[in-house]
Amino acid sequence: MVHGIVPPYLLARIAELDNSKFATAAQAAKRALVHDTALRAARLRFSIDESNTLVVELGDGPNRTISDADYTEQLPGVVVRSEGDEPTDDAATNEAYDGLGSTFALYSEVYKRNSIDGAGLPLDATVHYGDNYDNAFWNGERMVFGDGDGEIFGRFTASLTVIGHELTHGVTQYTLDLEYEGQSGALNESISDVFGALVEQYTLDQPVDKAGWLIGEGLFTEQVEGRALRSLKAPGTAYDDDVLGKDPQPAHMDGYVETDDDNGGVHLNSGIPNHAFYLVAEALAGNAWDRAGQIWYDTLSRPLSSRATFVEFASATVAAAVARYGESSAEAVAVRSGWAGVGVQLAGADSDGGRTA
After folding, report:
1. Which of 165, 267, 275, 331 is catalytic?
2. What domains are defined for the chain?
3. Contact, 215 vs 165, CB < 8 A?
4. What's residue 44's pLDDT?
């Protein structure tokens, strides 16, 4: 399953533009939609050696390889920078290299996870993919970045949250492996948004109250009235543009969107668990990657169905908080309250997120 950072509902809106001002963007969005639909239908393929053993070499740091597709859709492309190489003259190559390193650093230094799979998986990426390609995605094996259409979107390597988001789809692939549909798909997207935001905050050393909590900040050109694709702090406010419309994400179960589009609204309804995490981080203050992020990371290793619902995932985060910090800890109280704040009511919890008798 391919997970693109730009939701299909936004690409569809751009594809419908019929004025000459955004002609390039409209065509680019159409190509991205056709391309992504084909990729979403593909299945991942894996191989093992003759002895039926997968051997992984552990390392103390990232093992990054950046390739250049030269504006084609042929993967992987030509290698242009490998681990330890000096920066090149190409901004996209350097941004991808640095972003992979920043994501590795969060997982390694904070959560003691060795790369995406926890076993030192090399981090591969391809830049300059396609003709004005309006997206970035994790294809199960590597990161792939388009350069945008230049009218609505700029290059996708420019946003660290995008890189952290997409690589986290790989982490989820190796842990919960949540089915990419309905609430489990929205959780899949939300986990990527949460850790995408944490990659940026950890890299910039931003505490909760100084962070932007935006996903994809800097992707839009100056022609768009909007700051980012999504906001964890205030879902539904990331953009409000005459051409693109208003950010449609709900922040509460009262606004939950029932739809068959976008794999059952995975990019829409992810705003609800996104905001729950923000509320937890806000209540705990300090650095979000510490306690709030640790709880969410711990949840990735808990037993959950691949079709987990919001309530099931929320219950797992409470269990993770209790296991690490204690039943009556500030952390456990903050987690219960955070989910109550977005309308996800847990069994045995009152309306304020506390425990009932």
Report:
1. 267
2. 3-45+55-174 (3.10.170.10), 182-340 (1.10.390.10)
3. yes
4. 34
Considering the candidates 95, 151, 166, 331, report the single residue annotated as catalytic.
166
- pLDDT score for 27: 79
246: closest CA among 53, 10, 81?
A: 10
Position of tokens 């992810």?
270
- Sign of the Cα torsion 198, 182, 136, 271 reads negative
Ranges in the chain, pLDDT < 50: 38-48, 52, 54-59, 350-357
Residue indicated by tokens 């239908």: 41
Active site residue 267: yes
Q: What is the pLDDT of residue 34?
A: 63
Q: What is the pLDDT of residue 17?
A: 78
- Decide the pairing of beta strands 136-138 and 3-4: antiparallel
Q: 160: burial class by Cβ within 10 Å (0-12, 13-18, 19+)?
A: buried
3-state secondary structure of 149: coil
